[in-house]
Amino acid sequence: MRSGRFIGVMSGTSLDGIDVVLATITENMVAQQASLTWPIPHAIKEEILAICQGQSLTLSQLGRLDTRLGRLFADAVLALMRQESLKPTDVIAIGCHGQTVWHEPQGEAPHTLQIGDNNQIAAHTGITVVGDFRRRDMALGGQGAPLVPAFHHALLAHPVERRMVLNIGGIANVSLLAPGQPVRGYDTGPGNMLLDAWIWRQKGKPYDKDAQWASEGKVLLPLLQDMLSDPWFALPAPKSTGREYFNYGWLEQHMAAIRGYAGRMFRLRLRN
């Protein structure tokens, strides 16, 4: 692999912003140089949420959103380049997996769909873009998610120690790093995504900064037990999931039996 500076672009299931990172990467080292978070406009976020929860749309609408999101990714990269006074020739490539709007790894024809046209990023930044990271894995019988175990292995694998890394993003996942064995990883269930969905609906905020809102609540064991009774949690690993399954509608179903509690009572449990 050619060593040098690369830019990574990430927009996860929480939709709390576009993370852009500049890193120097060699065969033996990954070093972060700079980063920023670029906001996702309210209208685009609402369109993505609607698709993820099964709302129908035309191919024209999907195509327009794909282009707009690709340009938004490009704007985020350009902002980082201005911040760090970078020229296109200073960066070897940009990695962008896009925004997942549907992920269905089970069934007769497993599939996953990401939008955010990488051609827009390449055209507006002048830098080669690498993407479409998930579907080859699915074609070979994998889940197409999570992606982060490969990074955890490159950064944290040890020649003697067995290590486990828990990543709590919108969807939580775990990486199993055993000496001399292939890396394993799988989703463990919703992470911040349900809390983000709840505070977005209740307060109009993208996330619960510093857990300020969650700290006012307490664990409701009946709610916790009801959530954990979902059949997905009993599925064997490896497995993956997304917003098309764990979404605000799923949350409302489990909350329906205990509507008498104020909204603040749910926050800590979602945080955990």
UniProtKB/TrEMBL annotation:
InterPro entries for this protein: Anhydro_N_Ac-Mur_kinase (IPR005338), ATPase_NBD (IPR043129)
Keyword presence, Transferase: yes
Pfam families to which the protein is assigned, alphabetical: AnmK (PF03702)
Top-tier EC class: transferase
EC number: 2.7.1.170
Gene3D superfamilies linked: 3.30.420.40
GO-annotated biological processes: amino sugar metabolic process; peptidoglycan turnover
Keywords, alphabetical: Kinase, Transferase
UniProt-recorded Gene Ontology molecular function terms: ATP binding; kinase activity; phosphotransferase activity, alcohol group as acceptor
Listed name of the protein: Anhydro-N-acetylmuramic acid kinase
Species whose genome carries this gene: Klebsiella pneumoniae
Name of encoding gene: anmK_2
